[in-house]
Design goal:
The chain is of the alpha+beta class. The protein contains three helices and six strands.
């Protein structure tokens, strides 16, 4: 069974994840991800299934939401545990003119929680006049 500290630790990893995305900082994101992690986009017509290196190359090439002057908009919707070594986080992020829904699977590696898979979808933000 997961301990209260596991919840605190997973929230800490998610904070690092959100920070890395907001600043488009792959070095920050590397602190949150397991080296063997996968990045999977499920949007029809935009499917991707990348290694962590491929994902970080994309992050490094983009203009960050921070540099675009976007406000930071992320939310943890839920966290579930499957024992002491497996967790699932459902999070939402608004950035780069899209609303993202991420399903993040975490595992314990080297005595700390890390994201082992990111499976997500997005919808374009509505352009309000």
């Amino acid at each position: 069974m997961a301990e209260p500290q596991d919840f605190v630790d997973v929230v800490g990893v998610l904070d690092i994840y959100f920070e890395g995305l907001y600043y488009a900082d792959s070095k920050q994101l590397a602190k949150a991800f397991h080296p063997d992690a996968r990045y999977v986009n499920t949007v029809e017509g935009d499917y991707m299934n990348y290694s962590l290196r491929e994902y970080f190359n994309m992050v490094d090439a983009r203009v960050s939401p921070a540099n675009n002057g976007e406000s930071r908009a992320n939310r943890i919707i839920s966290i579930e545990f499957g024992g002491r070594r497996m967790a699932f986080a459902k999070v939402s992020i608004e950035m780069l003119s899209r609303d993202y829904l991420d399903f993040l699977t975490l595992t314990v590696a080297d005595n700390r929680w890390r994201i082992i898979s990111k499976v997500f979808s997005y919808t374009p933000k509505s352009q309000e006049a």
